[in-house]
Specification:
Length: about 350
Amino acid sequence: MDNITTLSPPIPGEICSINDAVLWCRMPLPLALDHINVYLVRDNGGWAIIDCGMATKATKAAWADVIAQLDGPITRVLVTHMHPDHIGCAGYLTELYQVDLYMSQTEYYAARALFAGNQGTDNWQDKQYYRRAGFNEEQVQLFTQGNGGFKKVVSPMPISFNRLIPGTSLLIGDYEWALLLGCGHSPEHISFYCKALDICIGGDQVLPQITPNIGAYSTQPNSNPLFYYFETLQTFANLPQTTLLLPSHKTPIYDIPARVEEIHTHHHIHLQNLLAACEQPQTVVSLLPVLFHRELGQHELFFAVAECIAHLNYLVYNEQLEKQLDENDVFQYRINRLI
Ligand SMILES: [Zn+2]
């Protein structure tokens, strides 16, 4: 398996064999990040799918090409977490092949809820989240006019699922896979680790070259996802250096602990820079350039705001920053001089 990291990635519809039990495929994404890696694991009587790609025509066509080349049928569909690039085609595939879906409980119900949408309830909390971050009314409108983006790239969810319980393991074909919990990027993300194969199918929890988005979104503006991300990242720091990481984006790497260390450092630099910038009171909007050094498009800004608030919430929970609403109902963040 020594040369896996030098393999060129498969194009959509192609299969790259990692070993006899694990296959690597790619699905296209209509985003700046233009692909997602998906994996097939040899199961009893066929192949289990891990992660699905967005429900687009291009992805469905790529799946048809891939499945036509397999030496057996699809046995089940496993999903690491509910983000559209991972879960998009899950319902499409389980419906088409009449197979079971496997997910963690929180991710399954979160996906069902996002698919159902706000069901007529007002979005004042969504607007308040952006106003309090310091955006003007025009920008608040841009952020909050979205209507069911999730549904556009996600197939209807199956009404039944099998629960993946973190800390337990799952037998797929001849191999046992430990189900590793990841929080912070999404609520109950599952990575799959097989000791016998020395492989970790990591999902988005640990990525090479890019860091997974850790965001405090308007659904839960006071959450502390960075804390829980660090906490669950520890499991990955303890994996053997020989373990091959099969990530959801970019290309496979070895030495997961070294990558975990880099990700840690990346966030701690962000935290230090935010603290240094908050000698005088600052808003989320004024702090964005501290974390992001380039012009951001509207779509990127949505993730950037949540990422910035996640870092600020971490510092507020640590009592390193104080957060106060000013007379305009905007949060001002300032270094806590009491400690
Ligand atoms: Zn994700």
